[in-house]
């Protein structure tokens, strides 16, 4: 016999500078959370800086 399924929810926040993700259990307790840089935003910053420093 298999164990009963556990309920969880995943949340994603895709913003201009970072992407945040989290996993919560049925009671709302955070099981896992992480953030990652948004590479598109980093590329835009790099290009903006390059435009300002190019003679």
Task: Kindly summarize this structure in a few lines.
With 55 residues, the chain is an alpha+beta fold. It has one domain (8-53). It has one helix and three strands; from the N terminus they run E-E-E-H.
Estimate the global geometry from the Cα principal axes. rod-shaped
Major sheet description? 3 strands, antiparallel
H/I helix tally: 1
Overall average residue pLDDT: 81
SSE-based structural type: alpha+beta
Q: What proportion strand?
A: 35-45%
Rounded Rg: 19 Å
In the residues, how many domains can be counted? 1
What level of helicity do the residues show?
Answer: 25-40%
User: Biggest sheet: strands side by side, in what order?
Assistant: 1-2-3
Distance between the termini: 71 Å
What's the order of the H and E elements?
A: EEEH
Q: Write down the oligomeric state.
A: single chain
Number of strands: 3
Poorly predicted tracts of residues: none
Question: Can you give a write-up of this model?
Answer:
The chain has one domain (8-53). The model has no long low-confidence stretch (mean pLDDT 81). The longest helix is centred in the C-terminal third of the chain and has 15 residues, at 39-53. With 55 residues, it is α+β, with helices and mostly antiparallel strands. It is rod-shaped. It has one helix at 39-53, and strands at 8-14, 18-25, 30-37.
């Amino acid at each position: 016999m298999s164990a009963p399924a556990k309920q969880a929810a995943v949340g994603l926040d895709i913003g201009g500078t970072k992407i945040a993700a989290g996993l919560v259990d049925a009671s709302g307790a955070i099981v896992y959370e992480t953030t990652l840089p948004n590479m598109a935003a980093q590329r835009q910053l790099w290009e903006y800086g390059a435009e300002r420093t190019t003679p």
